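Example record

The entry below shows one chain as it appears in the dataset: sequence first, then structure tokens.
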Amino acid sequence: MAVGNVLGYAAGSFANLYRLLPFTKTSACDVYCANLKTCFLLDIVLLVSLTAIPLVSVPEPTGCSSSAVNNYHRPDDDGQFQLGQVKSAFKNLGKPMWVLFLVTALNWVAWFPFLLFDTDWVGKEVFGGDVNGSAEAERLYNMGVRTGSLGLMLTAGSLGAMSLAVDPLSRVLGGGRKLWGGVNLLLAKALAATVLVTKMAHKARNRLPPFAPPPAPVKLATLSLFAVMGIPQAVTFSIPFALASIFCSDSGAGQDVGVVD
């Protein structure tokens, strides 16, 4: 996942990605449209290739008996059976699981605004651009969006590195719950740091000519913030599901982990 995110966000940081497929740029599709179209086409090629490789290279056992097939297909009971499993999963949940659900929900309430508006924040607040403004303001906004994509690439890179350290850090700190609590504090500080970076960019902009990009310290602070965000993101993608597997009962393990998801 981290490798795919790194490649995807790296592609979004290139201003002339469309040159890989020059035919994507037309009179009706400008540079930004062509870059997006190129990303989609490359994505389609990768998905088809990665789907075809396991289909061709991985053998699939066959030869199920007719009795097994007849016992498996029960169209009259499938709906009631699945609904009963869902009811049983919620009914048998203990207090630790409900606390886990609540903390996970609040955790993602904090994550979604950043994940949805991070590149827009860099383009507007850090670079001072405006997508609906003049040509110079739009140029600044596009520069900020590309810088935000580069920052997301750093987020994915630190996520991949941190994912390798989750297990040893959990052992050192005495459990996954302590690690999750610590990185949630780090997440809160990182989100609060967006205000500091915004104020830093505004002060720097007052000392620069109109429509000038922010100085190197502001860019460095922005990219550093993105890199730090990968640490709590790696823990958010792993620890809650590990805790769900520990807390849930043997009879409803699959449903409980699915509810967390």
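Notes for this example: Residues 108 and 236 are 9 Å apart (CA to CA). Residues 135-173 form the longest helix (39 residues).
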